[in-house]
Design a protein that fits this description.
The protein is an alpha/beta fold. It contains 8 helices and 16 strands. Strand 12 and strand 13 form a beta hairpin. The N and C termini lie far apart (about 65 Å).
Length: about 300
């Protein structure tokens, strides 16, 4: 069987860019079904479809949006597909063992944006930025019932730039992940794919980012606040409270002295000085423009 003839069942995409799915679909791979998150509530009561659903409809691939993991197996059994390879990219829910067994002897392979076993869980990219890591990476693993604990099929390092945001680092990871996956599919098909177990005693875990964790407060050093703004650049966005008002913070610098009334003095005595903000209910603007009164009305 040729590489592009292998039936592929795709699971995702939550926080990760959709590039791997787009490449599979546009490249003529035999994607037989896509499992995506349910539609979300949008403005005006309208439902917003996840990008995986939009792409599936564009390419004429059936899309399923089960709410619970237990709903997956009956859908798979109804497809009439045999010998499928699973590809999972940030699906957002655990895959039951019965589903893993359905794919056997093929695996479900998971593109995970960290150097496993470091940063298992749902926010590996953000955690790398928050912790000031100079390098992170992408691991492709065989999915198992335990979170991100499967054998590693491929791994590649990625540099974390000094001005890296979670958005830009996810984009890097998506490109690298696709390059790795493209070669790996061929190795799985011809039987040459090798894997190695993880050092589970060295595992670290990351959780889903909550809105409360995105607040900028004086409990952190100025450098930590600067990293937090870059890590929390999508959803939830980093924010500060000033005179009872909420300000999303998009960019800023570390200063030795206070620059504006919106500066936060960090635990190290230095200041984090926001430079680009979104006042609640207003458009995004430079801090100087806000303080001159442009955003106060």
């Amino acid at each position: 069987m040729g590489v592009k003839e292998v039936p592929i069942i795709f699971f995702g995409v939550d926080r990760f860019p959709a590039l791997p799915l787009e490449k599979l679909l546009a490249g003529g791979y035999n994607v037989r079904a896509i499992f995506a998150a349910p539609d979300k509530d949008g403005r005006g009561g309208k439902k917003v479809a996840p990008v995986a659903k939009v792409l599936g409809e564009k390419y004429g691939v059936p899309v399923f949006q089960p709410v619970k993991g237990g709903e997956i197996l009956p859908i798979l059994e109804s497809l009439g597909v045999e010998g499928a390879l699973g590809v999972l990219v940030s699906y957002g829910k655990m895959i039951p063992q019965a589903v893993l067994d359905w794919f056997s002897p093929m695996p479900i392979v998971n593109i995970h944006p960290s150097l496993l076993p470091k940063y298992r869980g749902s926010s590996p990219v953000e955690s790398a930025i928050l912790n000031g890591d100079e390098k992170t990476g992408v691991s492709i693993i065989k999915l198992v019932a335990e979170m991100d604990a499967g054998d590693v099929l491929a791994v590649r390092e990625i540099d974390v730039a000094a001005d890296e945001t979670s958005s830009s680092l996810y984009e890097k990871a998506a490109q690298v992940g696709w390059e790795m996956l493209e070669g790996l599919i061929a190795q799985i098909v011809d039987g040459s794919a090798k894997s190695a177990g993880q050092s589970h005693d060295q595992a670290t875990f990351t959780g889903r980012l909550e809105k409360e964790a995105a607040e900028l407060t004086s409990e952190k050093t100025a450098d930590e606040l600067e990293r937090k703004v870059r890590a929390f650049d999508v959803s939830p966005k980093a924010f500060l409270m000033h005179e009872g008002k909420r300000f999303a913070v998009l960019a800023g610098v570390v200063s030795e002295k206070r620059q504006t009334a919106l500066d936060i003095e960090g635990a190290d005595g230095k200041f984090y000085s926001p430079t680009v903000i979104t006042p609640e209910g207003k458009k995004t603007m430079a801090v100087d423009d806000y303080l001159r009164g442009a955003g106060r009305g």
